[in-house]
Amino acid sequence: MARTTDVKVTARPAPRAARAAASRRMPAVVERVVTYLREVATELRRVDWPTRTELVRMSVVVLVVLLLLAVYLGAFDYLFTVIVKRWLLPPGGP
């Protein structure tokens, strides 16, 4: 989550020169996987991770919203069950 007040500006490193196809030491698939994992590690170093208090606050908000949604959906499920049993099913039915 980026903060508008704490913007980090870093210079990007110069791109590496492409390797010649004849000088490959690994198969192409393995080389692509290694390159991908290096890029992932580079991006993870750039992430602005939340502090512990921010993480706890965001987690509490998520749990409260989930609890409210569960109560809301449960109440409507119960209401519709009662309506169907009382008015739509014949008397003496299941």
The structural class is mainly alpha
Query: What is the 3D shape?
Result: elongated
Major sheet: size, sense and barrel closure?
Answer: none
Secondary structure: number of strands: 0
Low-pLDDT residue intervals, each spanning 5 or more residues: none
Gyration radius, rounded: 28 Å
Please give the structural blueprint:
Elements (H helix, E strand, L loop, with lengths): L27 H19 L5 H37 L6
Q: How would you sum up this structure, described in words?
A:
The chain is mainly α and 94 residues long. Helix content is 60%, strand content 0%. The protein is elongated and about 80 Å long.
Concise structural overview:
By secondary structure, the protein is mostly helical. Helices cover 60% and strands 0% of the residues. The chain is elongated and about 80 Å long.
Entry keywords:
94 residues; mainly alpha; 2 helices; 60% helix; elongated
